[in-house]
């Protein structure tokens, strides 16, 4: 395993670095691990509607970055009080599989005396309170799994910056972000410094055979250029939401999904599928399949079935989508 040392605090830079590493992966290595921090940032899931997930006035007033991930899942708040990690592995699964990566994170935390446990599809918790969220995507034959560790994050900023779905909180049996979330700093020895935690965590993940690399000036510039051309653009971070005249949403086993349709004489002219779900296929494939379909239960099912195989939407099936669009009377 190898790692790249960087001192950036820009989430757009690190998402660009992940993508750059996929296309410039050393042939002799089978895995890359990145460990990084950001300035105050809201990271949106790939399929989310930005304007429904954030408090725009608060974001602007507090100068908080907004960056969309290339992976699914829900919006998260990060700052220098938490750590981000990325595994980039040569080999692409057909379906999302969190378990091997989350198990490694949990084992490492437990090694450091932190009573971490998995408590949902993609969350790690201490005594039922979330300390880590995880997300995953596949690209060009690689699996990218990334997540966050809340050490001493500013929970007040987190609660104010995000518009959290009340239904999601109720599903966790809590009433607020503050109640749902824990900080690792409160579960380690008193006076444990942030840097000590980071160093020990990184050392345990990488082991004794880690190769530490530095980006050359040319590589650094290439990553910055990709960040500028994609991950810092308004079109990527905000410009993916379209108006619709029919919209349904619901929380399914694999996460919340919202389907917005533009209908003309009950024919689907446009479609946008958003939410905090995970997908191993390009969601545009499903949206394209529905365009031109009659807004009819059997027609929609017939359009989706050939393009959506089992497991491609994590814990969401064609039948789930059809039932959401056409609930039984």
Automatic annotation (TrEMBL):
Enzyme kind, highest EC tier: ligase
Annotated metabolic or biological route of this protein: Protein modification; protein lipoylation via exogenous pathway; protein N(6)-(lipoyl)lysine from lipoate: step 1/2; Protein modification; protein lipoylation via exogenous pathway; protein N(6)-(lipoyl)lysine from lipoate: step 2/2
One of the record's GO cellular component terms: cytoplasm
CDD domains the record matches: LplA
A GO biological process held by the record: protein lipoylation
GO molecular function list: ATP binding; lipoate-protein ligase activity; lipoyltransferase activity
Top-rank lineage group of the source organism: Bacteria
InterPro entries assigned to the protein according to its UniProt record, in alphabetical order: aa-tRNA-synth_II/BPL/LPL, BPL_LPL_catalytic, Lipoate_protein_ligase_C, LipoylTrfase_LipoateP_Ligase
Domain BPL/LPL catalytic: 27-217
Keywords from the named record: ATP-binding, Ligase, Nucleotide-binding
Catalysed reactions, as listed in the record: L-lysyl-[lipoyl-carrier protein] + (R)-lipoate + ATP = N(6)-[(R)-lipoyl]-L-lysyl-[lipoyl-carrier protein] + AMP + diphosphate + H(+)
Keyword ATP-binding set for record: yes
UniProt keyword annotation of Transcription regulation present: no
EC number per UniProt: 6.3.1.20
Record's protein name: lipoate--protein ligase
Species, as recorded: Trichococcus pasteurii
Lineage: Bacteria, Bacillati, Bacillota, Bacilli, Lactobacillales
């Amino acid at each position: 395993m190898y790692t790249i040392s960087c001192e950036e605090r820009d989430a757009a830079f690190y998402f660009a670095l992940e993508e750059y590493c996929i296309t410039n992966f050393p042939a002799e290595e089978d895995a890359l691990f990145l460990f990084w921090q950001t300035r105050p940032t809201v990271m949106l899931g790939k399929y989310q509607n930005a304007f429904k997930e954030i408090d725009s006035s608060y974001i602007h007033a507090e100068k908080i970055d907004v960056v969309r991930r290339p992976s699914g899942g829900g919006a998260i708040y990060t700052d220098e009080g938490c750590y981000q990690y990325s595994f980039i592995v040569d080999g692409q699964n057909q379906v999302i599989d969190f378990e091997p990566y989350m198990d490694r994170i949990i084992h490492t935390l437990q090694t450091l005396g932190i009573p971490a446990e998995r408590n949902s599809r993609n969350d790690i918790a201490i005594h039922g309170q979330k300390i880590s969220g995880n997300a995953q995507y596949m690209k060009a034959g690689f699996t990218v799994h990334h997540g966050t560790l809340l050490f001493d994050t500013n929970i007040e900023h987190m609660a104010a910056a995000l518009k959290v779905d009340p239904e999601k909180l109720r599903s966790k049996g809590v009433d607020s972000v503050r109640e749902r979330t824990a900080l690792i700093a409160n579960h380690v020895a008193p006076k444990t410094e942030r840097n000590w935690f980071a160093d020990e965590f990184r050392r345990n993940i990488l082991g004794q055979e880690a190769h530490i690399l530095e980006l050359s000036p040319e590589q650094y510039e290439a990553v910055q250029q990709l960040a500028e051309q994609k991950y810092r653009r308004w079109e990527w971070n905000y410009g993916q939401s379209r108006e619709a005249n029919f919209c349904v949403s619901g929380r399914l086993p694999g996460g919340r999904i919202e389907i917005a349709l533009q209908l003309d004489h009950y024919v689907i002219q446009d479609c946008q599928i958003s939410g905090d779900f995970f997908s191993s296929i390009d969601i545009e494939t499903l949206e394209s399949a529905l365009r031109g379909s009659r807004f009819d239960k059997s027609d929609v099912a017939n359009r989706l079935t050939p393009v959506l195989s089992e497991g491609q939407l994590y814990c969401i099936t064609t039948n789930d989508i059809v039932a959401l669009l056409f609930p039984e009377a």
